[in-house]
Amino acid sequence: MTPLVWPALAFGAALFAALMFRAALFAGFRRYAPGGDRAFVRALRLPSVLWCVVLGLAVAVEVADMPVRLTRQLSLVLEAAVILSVTITFAHVLSSLVAAAGERRALSGGVTGWAQTSVRLVVLVLGLLVLLSSLGIQITPILTALGVGGLAVALALQDTLQNLFAGMHLLADKPIRVGDYVKLADGVEGHVVDVGWRSTRLRMLQNTVIIVPNHKVAQSTITNYDLPESRMALLVRIGVAYGSDADHVERVLLEEANRAIGEVPGLLAEPKPLARLIPGFGESSLDFTLVCHVASFVDQFEVQHQLRKRVLRRFRDEGITIPFPSRIVYMGGPDMAPQTPRRSTDPG
């Protein structure tokens, strides 16, 4: 037992010193590290204990005066401990980095948790294979079995994996974000509630949620009304009779739009409202376009409602007419001169 006393003492002293240094280091990090680094420190809490144990074993092996065979076995144990500590360290660190990235990108908890589990599992499997190789175990048959099994799983879960990688593409490229109002090519639109590992959830204006598979979202043409910003231009088309003074109509439209600023929620003062004779000369009216800017996509409905009421009331006060669609019809055959035209008014 005497030859083991000094290695045991050396192991205990080295382990104690390493643990004291670890405690002081973590105390300093907790005091001075910002919030993002604290998660990284928490990820290193368990692996750092393994480092201390590995350090103690290394010192004990160096101090011990034992037979070559026993020294070789202890060295093998030390090598296995190093591999395990490095594997667990990488698993925890990468998991914490994935969690931090998920928080920065505002990813859902399910996606972040799944990504953390996947990263941790991959690192642990690789570390286990390295450990088996260091212990002299042939890993080629294991790799072959894993390859065949992975191919079978991939074929069985083809649709699931398609949605999974499409979700990863959406999260990486960020054509849509949680909270954005989007419209897909097939007409589905709504606020993005969640981008999961299998599907994307959109909350429509009717307060119903529609669930779309990720691969359909990734393959669709997407209109995002919140990119590059939520502010958007609102075009309100208004037709007036041909006998109206265009300058007078333009002035009335601008006055009503400017008066509504600050009174109608969502209507912005900048950029300033514009009134233009666009698209111009219609079949039975002069067509003006009142251009305003609203804070978000959903604000346009209330703004249009209020602006149209204000413009209609002002037109009545100013004597500006909004005409019905009308056509001039000539009665007569091809060899007859045109008779007096009769005006046909279509109130629809």
Structure notes:
The chain has 348 residues and is of the alpha+beta class. It has three domains: 155 residues; 58 residues, Roll (SH3 type barrels); 95 residues, Alpha-Beta Plaits. Helices cover 55% and strands 16% of the residues. The protein has ten helices and ten strands. It has a five-stranded antiparallel beta sheet. A three-stranded antiparallel beta sheet has the order 6-8-7, covered by helices on one side. A two-stranded antiparallel sheet has the order 9-10. It is elongated, with a radius of gyration of 36 Å. The protein starts with a helix and ends with a strand. The C terminus is likely disordered.
List the helices and strands and how they pair.
Layout: H1 5-32, H2 35-43, H3 45-63, H4 68-104, H5 109-134, H6 140-156, H7 158-173, E1 181-183, E2 189-195, E3 199-203, E4 209-213, H8 214-219, E5 223-224, E6 232-240, H9 246-260, E7 274-281, E8 286-294, H10 299-318, E9 326-329, E10 342-345
